[in-house]
Amino acid sequence: MIEVEALAKRYGSFTAVGNLSFSVRPGEVLGLVGPNGAGKTSTLRCIAGIIPMNAGAVRIAGHDLASDPVAAKRELAFFPDEPRLFDYLTVRQHLAFVARIYGVAGHEAIAEPLLAELELADKADVLPVELSRGMKQKLVIACGLLHSPRAMFFDEPLTGLDPLGIRRMKDSIVRRAREGAAVVLSSHLLHLLEEVCTHVLILKKGEKVAGGTLAEVSAQFSNGEADVGLEEIFMRATGGSES
Amino acid sequence: MIGALLYLRLTSLRNLVVYRVGRLRQPRYLIGAAATVAYFYFSFLRRLRFAGTGGNAMSAAIIALIVAGFCATMCAIALLTIAYAWISPSATPGLQFSEAEIAFLFPAPLSRRMLIHFRLLSTQLAILFTSVLTAVVFGRTQFVGGNALMRAAGLWVILSAFSLTLAGTNLAVARLREASEHFLLWRMAAVASIASYVFAVVWYASAFLKLGSSSAFFSEDGLGGLAPGLLASSPVRWLVLPYRIVFGPYFASGLYGFAQAAVPALGLLALLYYWVSSTEYRFEEGSIALAEKRAAMKATMLRGEAPKAGIFKPRPQPGPFPLSPTGPQEVAFLWKNLLSMRSSLLSRRTIVMAFSITIWMSFALGPLFSRRGGSYSTIIVVFCGIAACYTLLIGPQVARQDLRSDLPNADILKTFPIEGWRLALGELLAPAAVLSLVLWFLIIVCSFALDTGGSVEWLTAGVRLAAALCLAAAAPVFCVVLLIVPNLIMVLLPAWYQASRQRGGGIELMGQRLILGIAQLLVALFVAVPGVLFGSLIIFSLFVHIGLIPAIVLAAAVVLAILVGEAAVGLWAIGARFETFDPSMEIK
Asked: B129 and B1 in one domain?
């Protein structure tokens, strides 16, 4: 579903991501972890088509992102850590706008349960300025889910959500994956990744340090110890520092 | 505390200077700085350097009168501002702290009075900087006497006095609202006092001007003495005493005079400072609101919109038309941007402004044409012509609900499944539609106003109709072409464009803004030239052979084809550039 081959992203002479390859199949949730500056956000933004990559190839549901970006983007949804919304569109108008962009016929039937699920139903006719940060985040999520994407990219999805929102978000990610979506999730919250992810990819200085199922990565860094948590694995894999 | 303030300000200033000088290594900043220096040199310094050497230098008397009038206007504005603070007091007035200052200083173990000291001293430093800069830039204006240093100090006294008085008034009004049960009575008394004061000044000034002794001032030689004479007359002399004290150092001609004037001025400033700093008002809430408002204004400007006066709170609006979930995606952008325009551009303020301009132009143009024997229809046509020019030149800068206002959402736009050129077209549709509507209205009015009743033989109803229809057909495409220019510049030079949206930012950013503005105008003229040339050529070469109406229609078709071609190239360029646009790198 999501195939990344030899992805590279450079900012001037600085290499943010180098020669990164991985794939996420339907039903899988890949956790992208790494210290600050490891290249997680750059990776997500490259594979979501937001920023151009310098080398490599990305295929979303079989569509090459470079040669057929429109078809690839039709299948994906990107959820940024900072909710970006249009100031003068109400919650409902945001959904109507996104529905037109993605050509979602009968979007009202999808939007209403989504709004209810995300507890935005009573805020449907207010502008973003009247929403809390958590609610803005929920609106971004509603907009992203409206067209039932087959590939989903979450960048720190729990930022700004209340405990109930966090629980629902986690459940929602797992449910979407079970329904056949391929999910990539970047977060510093390792316990979240442990709960939600089927696979994990550890990055450091833009390069892959470890990758595979949680069990595989755990085995790689457990040194024979039992019940080693992701936090400990992360520390061992990255050496406990950014550099 | 003073040490901490000085450390903060001086360290920030030093780092700012180091940063600004360091970034001159980048060509765009160096070019911007060079442009600003050139602008200032040719606009101010060079002109002022040679002022007085030419034959057109104004007489000292006239200059003195202008300066007196300017000062009187400034005093009146200051008084009006103070009066307004009493007439319409802010619900939660505050002192102007930055968001960072609020974050660091409000939770710090500092008393409220210390915070006031911090704010007031910070303001004084800022005012001192402004005063020095003004004195340096306008340093060659010798008519007020003294040297640049004295004028800088004098200006600092004037601005500080006003700033302290306004801050003190706001806090005093807020304190009264909090503490007094007779707040309304206090306000009424204050406004009545200000009104009585103004009345007394105007009354005695009029009485002085009516006196026979003052008639000597109205000769060319005596004109320069009019203001000093008025200020020396009693009781005006005493009524304007605070103003005289405040303006004294600025107008002092020598060092001794300056020292003499500075003593009472500094005494007055000290009194004002004491008054403001001893106010026991809980200003924190108001200061936070003020900081948020300033941050929102800054963000609004960065989005490419005009900053809103007062606390602007947008209200939900129904969509401009029902948006079907299927169909061309461009329409979704038209729908979204029209919604945004309705909330931000088509506000009451814009309508009042347009109405005011219309009234002003009517008054200005009416007498002009009636004096020259022009008819009302001529006035209307000229008015429409001027309005059309403004719509085409200024319109694309005002109606910016397109890619420019969506730049902060570039991340989201880039995930949309739509080709770049189609996204660009969709984004431009709303401002193009609004500008086209304005132009169509002007074309219709003109076509009726140009009815000469047969006195101009060739200007038949058919010609007017054909010209109007052709212009109406070309207008939307031309608007799109004109809107492409700033949008293309934005995606090609995003850093330059961002710089043009920020206030301040140093001389290098000012230069960038200058260059960008000129470049936009030149490119807009450049894209208009081929259409105008070919259109004119066709009409003038063919109308004798095939008639005027067919020539107009043919010319319009060619012009339209040129414009469509230009629009297509422009949209393709924006789209292609936007597809490779890297928001993380380029919006900095």
From this structure: no
CB contact under 8 A, A129 and B339: no
Ranges A57-66, B88-97, B216-225, most confident = A57-66
- B55 pLDDT more than 50: no
- Contact (CB, 8 A) for B431 and B481: no
B246 lies in the same domain as B208: yes
Number of folded domains in chain B? 3
Q: Label residue B408 by pLDDT band (50, 70, 90).
A: confident
Q: How near does any CA of chain B get to the CA of A79, in Å?
A: 9
CB contact under 8 Å between B584 and A45, yes or no, is yes
Residue B424 has what pLDDT? 94
Residue A16 is part of which domain span?
A: 1-75+152-162+184-243
B270 and B345 part of one domain: no
Chain A: residue nearest B325 by CA?
A: A100
Tell me which residue range forms the domain holding B253.
Answer: 61-290
pLDDT on residue A4: 94
Number of domains in chain A: 1
Cβ–Cβ below 8 Å for A88 and B344: yes
CB-nearest to A50 from B342, B343, B414 is: B414
| Identity of the highest mean pLDDT range in A196-205, B102-111, B508-517 | A196-205
Nearest to A1 by CA among A212, A198, A200, A177: A177
Nearest to B475 by CA among B446, B511, B501, B516: B446
ipTM surpassing 0.85, yes or no?
A: no
pTM: 0.71
Residue A96 lies in a domain: no
CB B377 within 8 A of CB B451: yes
Angle between helices B548-579 and B507-546 (to 10 degrees): 150
Kindly state whether residue B17 falls inside one of the protein's structural domains: yes
- The side-by-side arrangement of strands in the sheet containing A29-33 is A76-79, A151-155, A182-186, A29-33, A199-204, A207-213
Classify residue A88: in a domain, yes or no.
Answer: no
Query: Taking CB atoms and an 8 Å cutoff, what residues of chain A touch B418?
Result: 70, 101
Both tokens assigned to B330: 């461009």
B96 touches chain A (CB under 8 A): no
Indicate the pLDDT class of residue B177, thresholds 50, 70 and 90: confident
Pick the residue of A13, A76, A85, A100 with the most B CBs within 10 A to test the interface with B by mutation. A100
